[in-house]
């Protein structure tokens, strides 16, 4: 009842109130289009975060946020995990071992991410449009490469690092059963090693090893290389532009 009725109704009311305030501000200040999108993105991100944590109730009474899976309570609630950022409420039921936990406020999390994306794009456009000795495409690369790395970390690496030992074990089993030629006779996960920098989740089996974060680590490395290249190009262009021309 709370997730399906109260949170959407409060969100709609706040969205309507914010829209009135935004229209008044836009009419009085007449900001640029990029600034308007930045304000809209910030407002949507804040509203999405508030909805993702059920306006604070996820921290004070998370059981009420999960509610019941069925009306007759065939699958009782076992435990609840609440992550502050990125916001996530995971409800573990008696059948979650087979079907996984439910995330009743996942829509708010995606709304927050969409608003944050709009805010970041608008701010980057404002920064790129300013006068500079470096070209726009170089500045765009220097801005977007660390932002892409942050997005990879927040969406993939961060949640993986917060998994419990049981969840990591299930992830290792799932990764081992992906190839179609795997013979599902017996899969023995002997050890799980977790490192933060560089990020890795290494599953050690009886016959091999697998890193669950190998694609993410490659993406972070690529973003780092791109940032160094674009930042170097920006510094080089700025230095050349600052030198006096011959004969002057």
Characterise this structure:
This protein is mostly helical and 248 residues long. It has nine helices and five strands. It has helices at 2-29, 33-52, 57-60, 62-66, 96-99, 106-129, 136-161, 165-176, 214-242, and strands at residues 77-83, 88-93, 189-195, 200-205, 209-211. A three-stranded antiparallel beta sheet has the order 3-4-5, with helices on one face. A two-stranded antiparallel sheet has the order 1-2. The longest helix has 29 residues, at 214-242. It is flat.
What order do the helices and strands come in, and which of them pair?
Blueprint: H1 2-29, H2 33-52, H3 57-60, H4 62-66, E1 77-83, E2 88-93, H5 96-99, H6 106-129, H7 136-161, H8 165-176, E3 189-195, E4 200-205, E5 209-211, H9 214-242
Antiparallel strand pairs: 1-2, 3-4, 4-5
Helix pairs in contact: 1-2, 2-6, 6-7, 7-9
Query: What's the story with the biggest beta sheet?
Result: 3 strands, antiparallel
The end-to-end span amounts to 76 Å
Percent of residues in helices: 55-70%
List how many beta strands DSSP finds: 5
How would you state the average pLDDT, rounded?
Answer: 78
Q: For the largest beta sheet, what order do the strands appear in spatially?
A: 3-4-5
Number of helices: 9
Low-pLDDT sequence parts: none
Q: Which class do the helix and strand fractions yield?
A: mainly alpha
Order of helices and strands: HHHHEEHHHHEEEH
Q: What overall geometry do the principal axes of the alpha carbons give? A: flat
Radius of gyration: 24 Å
Approximately what portion of the residues adopt beta-strand conformation? 5-15%
